[in-house]
Amino acid sequence: MTIIDVHTHVFPRLSRTESRILAGAGEPWLRVHGDGTGMMMSGEDEYRPVVAPLWDPHRRLADMAAAGVDVQVVSPTPLMFGYDADPARAAEWCDLVNDRILAFCAADRARLLPLAQVPLQDLASACAAASAAKAAGHRGVHIGNHVGERYLADEAIVAFLTHCAHEDIPVLVHPWDMLAPERMPRHMLAWLVGMPAETQLSILGMALGGAFEKLPTSLRLCFCHGGGSFAYLLGRADNAWHHRDLVRADSPKPPSAYVDRFSVDSAVFDPRALRLLVDVMGAERVMLGTDFPFPLGEQEPGRVVRECAGLSAAERDMILGGNALRFFGAGAEAGSGPGPERRAGAGR
């Protein structure tokens, strides 16, 4: 079967000069050292050390072959979103980034499936960018879980998601710009605590804010990092909906009624956690995701899926690739990747 990783990132080689399009709004660019390492930059500030598969498609393809991954869905690194910029500048920036992502994926169009970013701070620009990206060959869009104080139940963002549903554009949601960073300055707690909390906040905000009631059921929506803490706190949320009118004021159904309206990736790193996630979401709504090529990602793609007790062979196949084939429309071309002889070391 085809192994598809739906949660991987790219940071194309963007120069300091090009980053100035954003005029003070983060200005992300890539400093490459020439030895296989680099540094993600935000203006003049160093943001994070990185390695060549983040920007070099040939290094990435080699790593995929070694790991037994046939296809990656490639999305921009969240630092690149540009949501704080003037909408016109953000639209210009997204055009540049999306062109570079297409060029990156051109190294092997059957194995690298591009996702675009959009200027989500402006509804008209975001819709136009999503449609243009689809026409140019992107397989969907990658968005942050909020724009400033506006989360996914915001009227304009619901309108954008509705546009994506009508245009048949899949949407991958990634947490970013985490809450309360001043309380989590050490040990990467913003990533370990803040990211799961951001995703839980987004999903519950949609459910309790009535967003799923407004959105077409055809919307293909996926949340990264296993949906954050959503599955593990769903009982608490349902209990609150049943017993407090303040919780259910804007939603006619409890949060659990909406688990069939979105998907999640499998990046939970523990077979026991994945078992609960599948029990809550259903195997048909979980897709392999690793957060490649960052060190906090799953280092052996698919290992947690394969070690998850109680999954049938059919359920494993769905999570490892079958669900992604349907979600992203990765059909015949995805199946043309390297054959079983290369994947023999993948441990299936």
UniProtKB/TrEMBL annotation:
Record's protein name: 2-amino-3-carboxymuconate-6-semialdehyde decarboxylase
Enzyme Commission (EC) number: 4.1.1.45
Organism: Yinghuangia aomiensis
Domain of life where this protein originates: Bacteria
Pathway involvement of the protein, from the record: Secondary metabolite metabolism; quinolate metabolism
Family label: Belongs to the metallo-dependent hydrolases superfamily. ACMSD family.
Short name of one Pfam family: Amidohydro_2
Gene3D superfamilies listed in its UniProt record: Metal-dependent hydrolases
InterPro entries xref list: ACMSD, Amidohydro-rel, Metal_Hydrolase
Keywords: Decarboxylase, Lyase, Metal-binding, Zinc
Top EC class, one word: lyase
Positions of the Amidohydrolase-related domain: 4-329
Quaternary structure (record): Monomer.
